[in-house]
Amino acid sequence: MDQGTVGSIFTVIVFVVFIGIVWWAFSSRNKKKFDEAANLVFADEDKEESKQRKNSGS
Predict the structure, then answer these.
(1) Rounded CA gap, 13 and 48, in Å?
(2) Which Pfam family is an annotated match for this chain, by its short name (predicted)?
(3) Is pTM beyond 0.70 here?
(4) How far is 8 from 3, CA to CA, in rounded Å?
């Protein structure tokens, strides 16, 4: 195998891995987990706001 063949095989493998990652990321089976992970940032803000309200007495 020459360098061109190895490069072509590597390109095809990387492309297949890329398609697999895109398929996994946009799979409807993973949507619920990703939505929960996306909202974790906002859950921390709610906890901090409630702590601030308790400390300020309002």
Answers:
(1) 46
(2) FixQ
(3) no
(4) 9
Q: Which residues contact 30 (CB under 8 A, 6 or more apart)?
A: 24
List, as one string, the DSSP characters of the chain.
Answer: --HHHHHHHHHHHHHHHHHHHHHHHT-GGGHHHHHHHHTHHHHHHHHHHHHHHHHHT-
Select the more confidently predicted residue: 12 or 47: 12
For residue 39, the enclosing domain spans: 3-56
Q: Which residue carries 């946009």 as its tokens?
A: 26
The amino acid present at 38, given as its one-letter code, is A
Domain count, the chain: 1
